[in-house]
TrEMBL record:
Gene Ontology molecular function: serine-type D-Ala-D-Ala carboxypeptidase activity
Domain of life the protein comes from: Bacteria
The protein's name: D-alanyl-D-alanine carboxypeptidase
Domain named Peptidase S11 D-alanyl-D-alanine carboxypeptidase A N-terminal: residues: 32-248
Record family assignment: Belongs to the peptidase S11 family.
Amino acid sequence: MPGFLARSAAAALACLALALLPIRAEAAGRYAAYVIDARTGEVLHQENANQQLYPASLTKLMTLYLTFRSLQQGDLTLDTRLAVSGYAAAQSPTKLGLVTGSRIRVEDAVLGLVTQSANDASVVLAEAIGGSESRFTRMMTQQARALGMSRTNFSSTNGLPDPDNVSTAHDMAVLARALINDYPQYYPYFATKNFRYRGRNFPNHNRLMQAYPGMDGMKTGYIRAAGFNLVASAVRGRTRLIGVIFGGTSPTERNARMAELLDEAFEAGSGTGAYVADAPAAPPAVAATQVASVPFEPPLPDRRPSDTDAMLASAEGDAEEEGSTGSDGIGAMIAMHAPARAQKVSFEPVPRALANIPLPKHLPARRASR
């Protein structure tokens, strides 16, 4: 009898292992990691760095880059009050809960993005700068090309599920480095731990920033097709590192891996001999819309999150695809997939000069309270 029980247990474990193989394979297929020296661009670690994957809310780093560019050019000020359209207000959670016809200051919209990863605020900025979300996504991809992000295509301002919205760990490191170098006066926004808006407190989703010594930004991202993503920047002494992880299996696992990679890079002091600008260009004949080994499965309008989904969403707080957990419930999920969604447009390369606007001499004023 004991022998029979032992054999049965072994068989059950074997079946469980076989059942988990596709899950593990999927997780491995969407994992990528990249660490660079922010000053020199030297690559200190890389795994699948040029694999096209879904950036999720890391997309908002480009939304913020173009916002900072508009501020620097004088097209906007931090106190400019932007109108909230019905389309922006209907975005799926996470969001600030903006109301159609209301207005929001640019600075508050920026803080909403860096803390709450607010999808409604992201669209408000896109419509104000680009005139429409579709035109703004074209500007995003043009700017990506200008920065050397050759394997990135943006078709969303906020990273909600879209099979054409793709990037790589390398390209996100390029973008993070550009944010730090091109707009250092605005980089402190990424260190905001809590944002209070209209009586509500929004903690920053990047919980690792509160636990890892020297980390002062940048951005988390999550949709089911992507896993848990993170772009992080940390400084020790005279060295600043940028780390990127795509496809974490949980916020805890992703954060632990990021801390490990950054520790190793800080201790090593030297890298692979490659530099961030050395990544191969995307083949011109290959469309930037196909993500290998990562099926795109947007949530259906009537989907309710499982207990596991709810636990992960609660732990991370950056649950862009979990519309049914938000205050707008299933209506927000339906709105996300409604026909009114902006049309995708093609892009054309633009000169590098777009990214070389002179920096202002003074830091933007920060408000002590709201």
